[in-house]
Amino acid sequence: MKIIWSPLAVDRVEEIAKYIAQDSPNSAQKWVESTFNVVERLEQFPKSGRIVPEIVQNDFREIIHGKYRIIYRLHSESISILTVRHSRQLLPIDEIKA
Q: 2-97 — its CATH code?
């Protein structure tokens, strides 16, 4: 399956990396690399993430990566990475269902 990152998801990864880099640029780089590695696994195992509890639809799923939720949507031939959120942040449904 092809993985497609939304502009919002890319922006979120950049924002989080900048925040982490304030304390440790090296840790920020490692976090970004590990985030992309975790997402790459979806190519082989697209349903490995759990169903997003706020939505409860089989095609909206998430991977928990450390303190972060990587929200994605399954399509017939691709996977859309919708957003990345800290697990303590509220998930605005309109942000991912648009």
A: 3.30.2310.20
Residue-wise pLDDT tens digits, 35-47: 999 999 999 999 9
Question: Nearest to residue 42, comparing CAs of 66, 65, 63?
Answer: 63
The CA angle 68-71-76, to the nearest 5 degrees, is 150
Q: Whole-model pTM?
A: 0.90
For residues 57 and 73, what is the distance between their CA atoms, to the nearest angstrom?
Answer: 10
Q: Are 49 and 72 in contact (CB under 8 A)?
A: yes
